[in-house]
Amino acid sequence: MKLPPRDATAYFKKPDPNKTGLLIYGSDAMRVALKRQEFLKALLGANAEEEMRLTRIQAADLRRDPPMLLDALKAVGFFPGPRAAFVEDANDNIAKILIDALADWQPGDAQIVVTAGDLKKTSKVLKAFEAHKTAFATPIYDNPPDRAEIERILSEAKLSPEPDVMGSLSELARVLDPGDFRQMVEKITLYKIGDTGPLTAEDVGNCAPTSTEAEVDDILHVVAEARAGDIGPVMAKLQAQGVNAVTLIIMATRHFRTLYRIASNPGGQIWGVRDRDRAMRQAKNWGAAKLETALTVLTDTDLTLRSAGQHAPTMALVERAFIRLAMLGSKR
């Protein structure tokens, strides 16, 4: 069944554990990932992975080993509660596997949760979920959060804004990527520790992200130009200057998303780029397919950095991701 965005917001808050599954798809990998996180937390609770009630499956792995999805659906764990099999980065290469899993699903099986990129209307995966009587398919558009979504995010962070603050937050939501906006809310939450008063415009101004510094631009160009040997020294300089790891990932995601936009639409309008010619060269060298992979790497790293159970050194995680991207960019 189709699940329109206006209905998806309510469903994501209170999913039906008796449904067969859900397909979440869209061109913005970060928005899709955030919605998937929200849905799985509401469906399974906060401790699903520790209790082995959530099985993660990469589409590439599933293509090599088709039975693994059905095994995950039928497996019964030691912990009570709803279960889910999460298939990431799906496409029509695994359409038959997903169609068979939807057909074989029985009440009591784990729910099938699938994420994908921007699927065409002719996609077999999309058609399978839309045609199913007890499964949903919902698109995630690149629209900024509306007032209701902003209020929900603030409520989850236990922040009560003054009436005149919502206009500023709505404007920031329009110009920031969703990951940037959530990071800002997290920063505000920390900023307000010990302050029981309402959220003011001054609080927002003190925590709103600043523009990209030239030093951060340096590392973005080093990675985008596949200069892996230069990453270590530049990262050491940035760390000494106190640059935040999450900030680096946010800026890198923004840069590679711009490159992907250029590669996907040659000759189209380019905005938000200081060095237009340099960005066009980088986009041409990468190509749209590799840039999609790069954005997946950055999204996964961003989600790892924000994970409550993450204890590894954050700058080391970012440096490893940047080296991986530089090596990917150097391949022909």
From TrEMBL:
Superkingdom classification of source: Bacteria
UniProt EC number: 2.7.7.7
Gene3D superfamilies, A to Z: 1.20.272.10, P-loop containing nucleotide triphosphate hydrolases
Listed GO biological process terms: DNA-templated DNA replication
GO CC, any one term: DNA polymerase III complex
Keyword Nucleotidyltransferase tagged: yes
Single GO term (MF): DNA-directed DNA polymerase activity
Catalytic reaction list: DNA(n) + a 2'-deoxyribonucleoside 5'-triphosphate = DNA(n+1) + diphosphate
Keywords attached to this entry: DNA replication, DNA-directed DNA polymerase, Nucleotidyltransferase, Transferase
Leading EC class: transferase
Homology family: Belongs to the DNA polymerase HolA subunit family.
Protein name per the record: DNA-directed DNA polymerase
Natural source organism: Sulfitobacter marinus
